[in-house]
Amino acid sequence: QVQLVESGGGLVQAGGSLRLSCVASGSIFGINTMGWYRQGPGKQRELVAASGSGGSPNYADSVKGRFTISRDAENTVNLQMNSLKPEDTAVYYCNAQRMGWNYWGQGTQVTVSS
Fold it and tell me: What is the per-residue pLDDT for 95?
């Protein structure tokens, strides 16, 4: 089992920045991809950014050039969010993939006011 704990959400004005962090614990050996998804009000959960082992990060078109994903270690993933827009408002979920299984954090709220 893998447990994911997110931090860093909050309220920010449009144009501002936030940094999300996620730390995995438990059976972390074998984690390959870690990333962030989000679910806005009345919307489906969508990929924001993901970082796999040895590959280039993958970003949603809507966040390219504004968000940056980074992996400090095998079990840590961060999301630096700049130039935030009201449409970025959502619950952000950390995701880890290990041996064919998906694991999710509890989610952290990001609210961008106009």
Answer: 97
- Do residues 2 and 94 make contact, with C-beta atoms less than 8 angstroms apart? no
Q: Give the Å distances, CA to CA, from 94 to 14, 17, 108.
A: 23, 18, 9
Please tell me what DSSP assigns to residue 88: G
Cα–Cα distance for residue pair 50/69, rounded to 1 Å: 7
With cut-offs at 50, 70 and 90, classify the pLDDT of residue 73. confident
CA torsion angle 76 51 104 93 (round to 10): 90
57: number of Cβ within 10 Å: 14
> Nearest CA to 40 among 88, 106, 79?
88
Res. 54: pLDDT tops 80 = no
Q: What is the pLDDT, as a whole number, of residue 19?
A: 98
